[in-house]
Amino acid sequence: MAAITADTGGRRFVDTVLRARELSILAALIVLVAVTTAVNSSFLSTQGVKDIFLNASILALLAVGQTMVVVTRNIDLSVGSVVGLVAFASGKFVAGHDRNVLLVLVVGMLIGAVCGLVNGVLVSFFKVPALVVTLGTLYVIQGLDYYWAHGQQINAADVPASLLDLGNGSVLGIPYLPLITVVVMVAVGYYLRAYPSGREFYAIGSNPDAARLAGIAIRKRILTAYVVSGVLAGLAGVLWLARFGTVVADAAHGWELKVVSAVVVGGVAIVGGLGSVYGAALGALLLTTIGSVLVVLKVNSFWQDAIAGALLLLAISVDRLLALRVTRALRKRNARHGA
Amino acid sequence: MSESPPILALKDVCKAFGAVRALQDVSLELWGGEIHALAGENGAGKSTLVKTLAGVHRPDEGQVLLDGRPVEFHGPGDAQQAGVAVIYQEPTLFPDLSVAENIFMGRQPRSKFGRIDRGALRAETAKLFERLGVALDPDRPARGLSIADQQIVEIAKAISRDARVLIMDEPTAALSGNEVARLFTVARTLQDQGCALLFISHRLEEIFDLCQRVTTLRDGRYISTELLDGLTADDLVQRMVGRELDTLYPKQETTIGAPVLKVSRLTREGVFTDVSFEVRSGEIVALAGLVGAGRSEVARAIFGIDRYDAGSVEVGTVELSGGSPTTAMSAGLALVPEDRRQQGLVMEGSIERNIGLTQLRSLRRGPVISRKVERDRAADWAIRLQLKYGRLSDVVGVLSGGNQQKVVLAKWLSTEPSVLIIDEPTRGIDVGTKSEVHRLLSELAGQGLAVLMISSDLPEVLGMADRVLVMHEGRLTAEIPRDEATEETVMAAATGQTRQEDVSGRASSGQRSAGSEATEVTKEDGALGAREPRSRQRAQGGRA
Ligand SMILES: Nc1ncnc2c1ncn2[C@@H]1O[C@H](COP(=O)(O)OP(=O)(O)OP(=O)(O)O)[C@@H](O)[C@H]1O
Ligand SMILES: [Mg+2]
Fold it and tell me: B349, B414, B410: which is closest to B382 by C-alpha?
């Protein structure tokens, strides 16, 4: 069939465009690292690289959860406050006791799950717009955290060594943190790609009306997305404590926007239906690297936010442009092939 | 009939949307092994009935019966579980997912550990497309598919369900002969396997061709159910409309004036080549051809939506710069696009807003838009086109398919253009309104409007056009004057066949005088022949 081969050409074009996102982030990363190393050779030291990966791990973990939500055409702005709350709560939980690391992780993730559940129920069952719901829970959780913390802080001395080891130790030279992130990322990515229920997240974001007509359990999926995002935020909270030891009430303050930027820069369409957790994680790595580069180049730290913002705008414009291009390419093929 | 109860039935169902009573005491029985037609004008309640059967709407009163027992579908999922597959009137695809995923969403073939078996997914999709006789790539995203292909994906989706009941809401509206024939073959196979089918179409020939029994609705009310055997098309129209219909194709004789639209050597790389023609004031020119011949693309280029690589477009004495719909509009050009959902209407906007959209400037009273003038104009057009609606402030999205088409028409006609390009003017429009639209076009032409009409409906082309232009694979292949245009001449040019055999065929049938063969504009060259694969060719108008 002649048309099949011709169509394949078009598909390859579309595929290339989609994969180009991940590749172009990689390219940007390489250029960034190369230039910075040329200016300051200590940038690429073992410790430097390790620091970047450690710092990116928590952001990437959050980006993975956020991807699941954004793909369904929703958003979770409460993740930053959940990280703060869980970091503080698990600090309180371990302070003065020698708790099992696993138990701490479970408690943290449970707290996150509850937060995610509240978001999910409000968005999916009560049909309140996601932006409003999660903005609300962001402030509520933050308020709760501040009220509870009341100016106290958790000190590294209170945290059991086994937990601190999770945040800073490594196995075979690879630190635990990025290891955990990669495992979670691959698991979620595989699920979204290879399982029928995983594809439904994309279907919902791509066309909610059609998803309803197709009999997809929309509310259940959206609820799941929020719970996953909450659980991962909880996990991130415990890891935060494990990595830094010292936790004040406003840990991870303002991170929600960082996470959303990472996701969008990583090629997940903010209108849903498109994008992968791998892209999102790469986006997180890129943003973190830029942060470190600015430190090394001794650029004032508030530029970091401006640059993250500019990158976000760039990503959104590129997305828009690419979407138009792809649509046009696909349509042009129709005209040629008599469809 | 058989002893067993109907597979799916409605009993005294009522459904209202606010003040609009879409269904009132409607009953319907779908029996295994039978194809049942549902007929009615635009807004009669056909799609509402379909959605009630599909579990999208729940009846306000009355029951849905499955195998004779009352059931309550709490959502489309329940109806699917019960073996009901539906092709909705408006395509419901996921643009970001592949065609194969669209078809099998929720029912993907699995391999070990419940994963999706991508190989099988692709293979099964390919098999479905083969059965339907189309060459679509299972892996391409649904975004950018033409309406016809979207419709085909919907059909594939429905038949892949192996359902006991298949409901088809105007599945053929965007299709031409070849695919319609394939669809009918598939439908008959399902019928032989004992499925119950419900078929909706505004093309009465299709109903008579495919179905055994017909139920008619009028204004949401049940009129009749009867066997089609022994029924005439006029009877059916009478049931639908409630009155005798006036003559079809009320073409007025007009005086044809000077050329107002001049298109010369228009070319867009890989889409259409060297297209030249003129449309004179008072003239209706039809642009015929197979789906995908490049007709809509030419229209879009003329209007400035798409760019062209070479050639020129003149309206009156003004040469358009190209690429600017605003310039085209102020030069007096209007385009009624093919795809009303994406290009024609703001679905969330009200009826009056949509009609007023093209003439914001003339609606201005001082610096603000006058709501009153907007409303008056909209009301005026609503009456002229017999629009069926609740209030003019209702959003367009809830109108029935045919009524949405009327709003698009009103929107553009109210700009009072000097050249009207109209792409499939009566797609999805019922018989009564169809002749109303034709009368309107004819009347406007009588007042000096130049009309370029793209149509896949062959009777419409032959009935309305003063001149027929035919496109084949991106080129203009023939120009046929009204008195020489027949089904054969147009079809021959549209499929790129040589003219000789047709002429002799026509001569022997004695329909036309000798020497009435079509004037060829461009010789068909074989060079482009490969562009449109055989399997994709759609015999346009073949249903007539
Ligand atoms: N969701 C809705 N809200 C409000 N009114 C609606 C809704 N759906 C349908 N209607 C109204 O119900 C009536 C019947 O519409 P329906 O779509 O069933 O007509 P139809 O017979 O399918 O017409 P067509 O041939 O044009 O497709 C119309 O007046 C329409 O405006
Ligand atoms: Mg309808």
Answer: B410
* Whether A200 contacts B105, CB under 8 Å: yes
| Residue B338: pLDDT over 80 | no
Segment A73-79 shows an average pLDDT of 94
CA atoms within 13 A on the CB side of A86: 32
With respect to residue A19, please indicate whether it lies within any of the assigned structural domains: no
Q: Which three-class secondary structure string do you get for A98-165?
A: CCCHHHHHHHHHHHHHHHHHHHHHHHHHCCCCHHHHHHHHHHHHHHHHHHHHCCCCECHHHCCHHHHH
Among A245-259, B58-72, B447-461, name the most confident range.
B58-72
Q: What are the pLDDT digits (tens) for B373-403? A: 778 878 888 887 778 777 888 888 888 777 8
Instruction: Identify whether A36 is part of a domain.
Output: no
Give me the domain span that covers residue A113.
Answer: 46-322
Beta bridge partners of B262: B278, B314
Q: What is the pLDDT of residue B341?
A: 65
Residue A40 maps to a domain: no
- The CATH number for A139's domain is 1.10.3470
Distance from CA of B395 to the nearest CA of A (A): 17
Task: Indicate which ligand has the atom closest to the C-alpha of B169.
Answer: 2
Number of domains in chain A: 1
Q: Does the pLDDT of residue B527 top 70, yes or no?
A: no
Contacts A187 to B, Cβ<8 Å: none
Residue B236 Cα to ligand 1 middle (Å): 21
Q: Would A152 be classed as within a structural domain?
A: yes
Q: Specify the pLDDT at position A37.
A: 86
Question: Is the predicted ipTM greater than 0.85, yes or no?
Answer: no
Ligand 1 pocket mutation pick from B10, B398, B430 by most atoms within 8 angstroms of CB: B398
